[in-house]
Structure formats: structure tokens, C-alpha cells
Amino acid sequence: MGLKGVFLLLIFLFPLCMAFAIPTTLFPRVHYPVDSLKQVTSLKPKIPFETRFYPQLLDHFTFTPKSSKRFYQKYLINEQYWRNGAPIFVYTGNEGDIEWFAANTGFLPDIAPKFHALLVFIEHRFYGESKPFGMDSYNSAETLGYLTSQQALADYAVLIRSLKQNLSSEASPVVVFGGSYGGMLAAWFRMKYPHITIGALASSAPILHFDNIVPRSSFYDAVSQDFKDASLNCYEVIKGSWAELQQAFTEEGLAELSKTFRTCKNLHSVSSVRDWLWSAFVYTTMVNYPTEANFMRPLPAYPIQEMCKIIDAFAPETSKLDKVFAAASLYYNYSHGEKCFNLENGPDLHGLSGWNWQACTEMVMPMTCSNESMFPPSEFDYEEFATDCRKKYGVSPRPHWITTEFGGERIEEVLKRFGSNIIFSNGMQDPWSRGGVLRNISTSIVAIVTEKGAHHVDFRSATKDDPDWLVEQRRQEVEIIHQWINVYYADMKQDKKFI
Amino acid sequence: MGLKGVFLLLIFLFPLCMAFAIPTTLFPRVHYPVDSLKQVTSLKPKIPFETRFYPQLLDHFTFTPKSSKRFYQKYLINEQYWRNGAPIFVYTGNEGDIEWFAANTGFLPDIAPKFHALLVFIEHRFYGESKPFGMDSYNSAETLGYLTSQQALADYAVLIRSLKQNLSSEASPVVVFGGSYGGMLAAWFRMKYPHITIGALASSAPILHFDNIVPRSSFYDAVSQDFKDASLNCYEVIKGSWAELQQAFTEEGLAELSKTFRTCKNLHSVSSVRDWLWSAFVYTTMVNYPTEANFMRPLPAYPIQEMCKIIDAFAPETSKLDKVFAAASLYYNYSHGEKCFNLENGPDLHGLSGWNWQACTEMVMPMTCSNESMFPPSEFDYEEFATDCRKKYGVSPRPHWITTEFGGERIEEVLKRFGSNIIFSNGMQDPWSRGGVLRNISTSIVAIVTEKGAHHVDFRSATKDDPDWLVEQRRQEVEIIHQWINVYYADMKQDKKFI
Fold first, then answer.
1. CA of A330, closest CA in chain B: separation in Å?
2. Is B430 in the active site?
3. Host H or E run for residue B185
4. CB-based contacts of B307: which residues, under 8 Å, 6+ apart?
5. CA nearest neighbour of A237 among A308, A332, A343
6. What is the largest CA-CA distance in chain B?
7. Chain centre to alpha carbon of residue B101
8. For residue B492, what is the nearest residue in chain A, using CA coordinates?
9. pTM for the model
10. Distance from CA of B295 to the nearest CA of A (A)
11. pLDDT digit string, tens, across residues B403-431
12. Which of A124, A209, A350, A455 is labelled catalytic?
């Protein structure tokens, strides 16, 4: 899951709680060392994929002269297990290079043979090589304006339909898969395009993280609960560390802090330390996997427990900053390769990136830190957020649009009477699970929840070290997908058109 | 139903078969006397409506700077039967002034009292007073580009949500109603926005009239069948009349024709006669109602039967043109007020009208005339059609977009496993019924088909002359809607949020 995870983590973390009395930036930077990026891009898929490009329409929902512009949308395809008429498994790409998702969704190559499935990974518009205006795509709202989830879903619909026609396999059932934002897209795709896909496996898809559907503090409360479950002392040390950090906001304090955090260059602000720690705790929570893994960075099995062991091993009187530095080092330096840390020089991933645009337009996920969280308490100031978006992009967010377009409120009542064939899988270690669907809605819109699972762990390649619950989770998912497909073929047999 | 009917008929008739060897225009004009328009606009709704305007977003699906422009969308509201928490009945306006639809959907005021329902008629963008660019709205593709069915559905979603919030009645169940294109919108709205509406009554909604889902000749075959059912001789006279008409394409012939058709001015072409006759036969078929009605024009009960009686009363040797003129006169002159007919001077309803734009972009409904029809055989020449659209509007149609966005192919297989609570009502006299859903798909996606019904006859105000089958049809519809609402309230009771 290496790269994919990294990417998701970075971009999903956007709505950090406001830390400290005077936040230095509305969206604290997430540090992400350049060398780690390089490492991740070298990952390869388990099986070879052919790269293709589809001439996609810029704007499906209007007919202005500009709307009919075409751009080349990238997709990856593997036919090695497929036979005509057999299922087509489509990964609904999220906010990144589709190669990353193909390399990090071993689950699909793992299960394709038993379904004789065609595998297709479609890149999301405006990411990777699928930029409608090339290098100019991110210039302004004039171009970025076409980066929306509904356009992306329509892209998938158009491309899948064309692909099936070209393969002369129009009767093939299509199942969509996605993780994180990709999981949201997969679930929404099934809801909006049931005539194109027979079902969706949406892994770690926080489709309820909009408006006030789930409590705004739930994300950071979940992070905190994971640490508290590992060790109460660990949780309290982290919770207390922010006050110590804030006290260091003097020239001398920064010099001392630079030493404590082994920074390569002297620090100029405490906010970079705050963000660095914050990222370590949040990302580690998301990837609190049961096995050693290299999702974002190399980490041991159950890394939260390991972090807390480090904190708990210190003498009680040691400064909290020393303790949290040591804990964060597990995340940043598990392989012990780093001599010093660049806390202030990471690439500006909060610049004009695609996800930031999406977060400033439709993907408004308000988050707060409650008094119970291990982070400093904070509110979500919508006006401040909106002002910042207008300043950055010249657009105003539409904070209620996602729930208008895709629903979410009273989702159980709505979907128990409408729709079918969606699996929402969530691991409760993952703080995003709190914005996911965690209970069965109907006989065929089901939740698979694993207490020890983390961010779309089910999509990782199977390994010999996988715990039983993970093996069982994947078995269940495969079984349900088999049922969908069997019902589809049975229906098809009854439909004279296809006999 | 007066005005609404007229309007629908006119705009829905766009894909006329190509008549004669050399069609004079790709889209034969439909004659529509100005005095009739005046008559129709004087119709008033059965109950008073308050007119309101909602500041609607120009483009829901992009975030370009232009997309955030607001325009005022008109809607009509009547609260006289309503109480807070009770149902909201929304008419999803189609291609015309919303006043017309309110005036011509007596069914809703008829049933509102027993539901204590709020009535809302929302105007479709680009029609009536809801023109996003005012007088410039129809200038070019730059402005017209925002006239699409998906934008219209999103308008309805946003407006309904806002309305419920303003009424502090967010728990009110919403049921949507629509006839003809409005029926397509109602059905699609339930499919795409199940979180906003609990069900849809889609009357005479030809959602399958796209691509090759239903045979392309079905519309005109249905018209012909209605005439054949009335009288074989009648059908044969009409079928034979086109050849006689074609022979009149000389100076002398036209002079003779002008006399036969009692034209106010001398004719310059036979195509205007062809279109005049064509309109009479097609429109009469659509409104072949069981009672005397003034839907488009005043007509007797079962006007096809009356037309055929006129034709059959002639001596066999009389010229066919004399016979069809007399038959068409029933349609144009039932009240005997016309001294002569303006066949060539009707308003240009096929100019830059909204429906022509929609037909040239997404609403591509290919139609042909088979050898069995009473019209001259013809094919649908897509290239010619697309070229004409490009010439007229500078845009290319997207002929497969509606089926990609809304489905339609294998609809029974898809919707029996997905979705709920849609009534598709169709009258088999109406040729549009052939593109409708005519069989139950599941226990809650049902078809109500009446052999003697015509174009959304169920939406007309109840009258004392209504036949039993029509009374029964409306009773069934009300009963089903009652069930939806009861289930919704029962679900709500179980949902703690709303107790």
C-alpha cells in the first residue's frame, strides 16, 4: 500500500484541528520528506498493466463550447485472467497517480484469477497524467473548476461503457472498487450509475464526514482513543506535550527545540514541530496495521502500540517533548536511516494541489478537536476556512453540496429502501472509520467492520502473516461479490436479449 | 391540461419522420396558430399559488468562476392544505412556463387535501421566467450550454432542500410528480436523489426513447395503430394521401391545394400542408382522451374515432386530400370558428427554442417511419441530424449520454435489483407510451397502463365524466403514494433523530 497510503494520508489530513492560540496557518503543513516520495514512486504493481488513454469529455454536464474539449484520461488494464463475458473489476481512481493505486491494491490481482476478471484502474481527472489542460491544469479556477467528483464519476461511466463496447463484452458485469476517497467514489458510483456497475466495494470511505452527519470531533477523538487504548500514560504524555511545545516559542526555546528534535537546520517556528508530530500520530493511527508494512513508511506491526511502548519506557520525569520526539521517530525513522530531520523544508503539499482544491470546493469535511482528544481543543471556523479558499483559489466552497448530491443524512433510512450491492468496509483503528458506514443497512448494503483493521487494509496484498480476521474479511468480501455476479448472470439468462 | 398539453405536444414532436423524397427542412415545422396560444395562456390554476424566486446556482457540477453565478428560479407554492411535517408534493417542471404546468395538473390540487400536502411547482431552468441570462439566455451555446436535464435535477434538489429548511419541516416526505419530459425528470430525480424524494409519479415519461432501446419506428407505428384500430379505411386513406400531396408539387397543384385546404394565403410549398396534417394526426393521437377536452385545442371525446368517422363518411371515390383535410379540420376547427387556415405563417416554434436545444444536445430520440406506418417510410439519418445541430447551435449532440447518465438499457434487470418507489403511468393511446416503462419492475417500481388512456391523462383534473378506468387509475396512484408515505413515517418513528 506504500505510495497510495502516503498520498491519501497527506491529502486527507487537510482539515487538521486548529492548534494553539494563534495558528500560524489555517491548514498546518504536513511534513513529507522528499526522499520518502522517491522511495514510494518506485513501487510496481504485482502484475503488469497496459497503459491506455481515453479521449474524455471535459464537462459532461454542460454544452458550452468549452465543455466539448477532449483530454486524455489514463487507465491501466490487465487481461491476463480475463475471458470474454467474465466480470470487469474497475478501481475508481482517487486523488493521485493511478500507477500508485494499481501498485497498492494487491487485493484485486489477488482475487482476479478466481473470477477470470478483467482489471481496470482508471485515473481520476486532474491527477497523474490525466490533466485536462496539461501543465496549465492547476493554474486557476478557470481550469481547476472541472475537477469535481461528479465529473469524475461521469468519466468512469463513459469510459467503462466505451471499454465494454470495444471489448465486445457488453454483458460483462462490472464491479467497482475504491479505497478512501476512491471508496467514496466507488459507493457513489453504484448509487448513481447502477446500470453500469452491479456493485461496489468501498473500503474506508468516509462518506458521512460532511455537514454534521457525524460529530465533527470524531476523527481526532478516534486517533486519541487508539492511543488511550494502547496506554493511558502515552495518551496523557502526548496530550500534555502541546503546552510544553507552546512554551518553547522564544529564541532560546527554538534553539533548544532544534536540538531535541534533531533538526537539520535551526527551527524558526514551533508550528512546524507541531505539524511534524501531528502527522506522525495521525498517519500512524491510520496505518496501525497488524503486520509490519511499508504503507507510507516502513513501520512495525501495530505501530501505535510500539510508539506507546517507547513513551512508557521513559522515566516519568523526562520532558514530554523528549518522549514525543522519540515516539514520532518510530514513524519517521523506523529504519534508522535519518541522521537529522527536515521539519521545515518539506515540499509544499498544501500549495495548489488537487485535493486542496477539492477540499476548498465540495469536499468540505469540518473537523474539530474536543477536550477529550489528545490534541489542543479547537473549533471549525467556517468563515475563516471559506475566506482562505477564496484567497487561494478565488472560489467559495459549497459546504452542503456533497450531501445534496450524494446524501448521507439518515443514510440508513434512505438506503434500506433504495439501492443494493454495496460493501462498506472499515477498520476501527482508522480514524476515518468514524465517517464511514458501520452498520448493515439492508441485506445487500452491508458493513464489514474489523476492530483491528486500519485504513483500507483489506485492499493490501495478502501475506502469510495476515491475521485470521483479515483473511476472513477478504473471504467475506469475495463471497459477497460472487453472489452479486451469480445473481447478475441468473438475471441475464432470463433476459432474452442476452441469450 | 390545455396549455401544458399544447406545449408538450409541440416540443415533443421534434423528431418527425422525414417525409417525402426531399424534405424541405430536417425538422418539419409544427403549425401552431397564434390565437390558440393566446387562448391557452389565459388558463388559471384551480387553486391560487404564490410565486417565489430562488437564487439558484448556474452550474452545479463545476467550480469555474462563471459557475457560481446566480439566477432566479421561479417556483409556485400553495400551503392551503398543508401542515408542518406533512408531505410536500413537488412538480418537476418541464420545458415551459411553470404557470402552464400548475394550471394543467389539476391532479395535484385534487389530491393535496387528503394528504395535507404542500404543493410546489418548480420551473425548469431556461424556461418561463427562469432564464439564467435573461433575454440573452438563448443567444448561443455559451449561455444555452447550461440548459441540461442534470442541471435541472440538481436545481430541484438544492431548491427542495432549502425550502424544507426554511419551512422548518425537514422531516416532511417529498414526492415528485411530472408528466412527459417532466415525468422523465421525476423518475430520474427519484433514481438520482433518493435522499431528497421518497418516490416519483412519472406520467407518460418516455425514458426509453433513446439509443435503440425501443424500436425507432415505435412512435409512428403507435400513431398509425390507433387510426387503424378506429378504421382500416381511415388508416389507408391517410397512408395514401401523402402520394397525392406529393403530386401537387406544381404551380397549378399548389393553387388547387390552397383551395382544398382553405388557406388564407396561397401556398408556396406542399411541405407546410404535410406538416399541418402530420401535426393534426399526431397531436390528436396523443390527446385521444375519453372525454371532451381542451388540452391543446377543443376536441370531442375520442377524437381519433371522430376523425375516422369523417373520413369514412366520404364516398370512396372522393380525393384523399379532401378526406384528410376534413379530418384535420376536426383538430384545427372543432369549434367552427376558422374561416380559413394559416398553414405557412405559424410562429417559428422550431427556432432557438429551449427544447430544440435540448434535442440537439442530450435529448436525442431517434425516430423512423416503418412501412407499416401511415406516414411515408423514412430512416433516421444521424449525420444529417448532427450536422444540422452544429449549424444551428455550434454544438454536437451527445446521442449516448442520456443512457450513460440515466440508464434505460435492460432497465428491468437493473431496477428490479436497485431502487424503489416509482410509478410509471402510461396510456396506450399515447404514442409516447411506447418509450415508457409498461411492466412492473419490482414490488415498488410499478407500471400503471391504461389501454384507453392518452398523454398523462391521469394528471388532468377529475371530472364527473371520467370513465371508471381513469377513476381507478388515479385511486391506485393515490393508494401507492399513501403507502410510500406511511412507510416513511414508520421508518422515521424508529429513527431516534426524529422522535
1. 41
2. yes
3. helix B181-192
4. B227, B230, B234, B281, B284, B327, B328, B330, B331
5. A308
6. 81
7. 11
8. A413
9. 0.93
10. 33
11. 999 999 999 999 999 999 999 999 999 99
12. A455
